[in-house]
Design brief:
The protein is of the alpha+beta class. Helix content is 30%, strand content 37%. Strands 1, 2, 3, 4, 5, 6 and 7 form a 7-stranded mixed beta sheet that branches.
């Protein structure tokens, strides 16, 4: 009976010891985890400071928008340039057989020529100003179905009245008949004069 009582007492003591150890283990586990949550509370603080730099970068791109509004002035300057055409007009066309050496203008107006006249001149008087205009003289033989036989152009730059003289020559006798010279300014016909050759 003594052995059985000892076994029972040992069993009870062992059971009580195990219960105490397990209770101590639970207290250690419960006290351990609460210490770790404290550090994460301080970690979130740095993350709110990160977005502001990103916000300042996104606010910078709107500044390139103003250059898009600069093209309108370019179009207005294009209009002002096109509003200044050549301010020049042809005022008279004179036909003759000789030119004054000093003025390069027709010395005597003439509308009839002989087949033996070697040169025929057309003086074009202009008024106004231009940096670069083009005068053209196209000569044609009207009795030959207005067949053109010569065309010459001159570039002029002037700030007032000017005279430009054109000349046609024929080493052979001129065919008799009616002739015409058409004067163009910058490609547009602005004047014409008729003359004739008679034997």
């Amino acid at each position: 009976m003594n052995i059985q009582a000892r076994n029972t007492a040992l069993y009870c003591a062992t059971l009580a010891g195990l219960l105490m150890l397990s209770a101590c283990g639970k207290n250690d586990q419960e006290s351990g985890p609460p210490a770790s949550p404290a550090p994460p509370a301080s970690a979130p603080a740095p993350s709110p400071t990160m977005p502001p730099p990103a916000a300042t970068q996104s606010s910078a791109p709107p500044q390139p928008a103003p250059p898009a509004s600069t093209p309108p002035p370019a179009s207005s300057s294009g209009k002002s340039a096109s509003v200044q055409p050549h301010d020049i007009k042809v005022t008279a066309v004179t036909i003759g057989g000789a030119v004054d050496a000093s003025s390069l203008a027709i010395s005597k107006e003439q509308r009839r020529f002989s087949p033996q006249d070697k040169s025929i001149y057309a003086s074009v008087a202009t008024t106004g100003n231009t940096d670069n205009a083009t005068l053209n003289a196209q000569w044609s033989y009207e009795d030959g179905k207005e067949q053109p036989f010569s065309s010459t152009s001159e570039s002029i730059a002037t700030d007032g009245p000017a005279t430009t003289t054109f000349k046609v020559q024929n080493p052979n006798p001129w065919p008799t008949g009616k002739y015409k010279v058409v004067i163009s300014l910058n490609g547009k016909a602005v004047a014409s004069e008729n003359f004739e050759v008679r034997s």
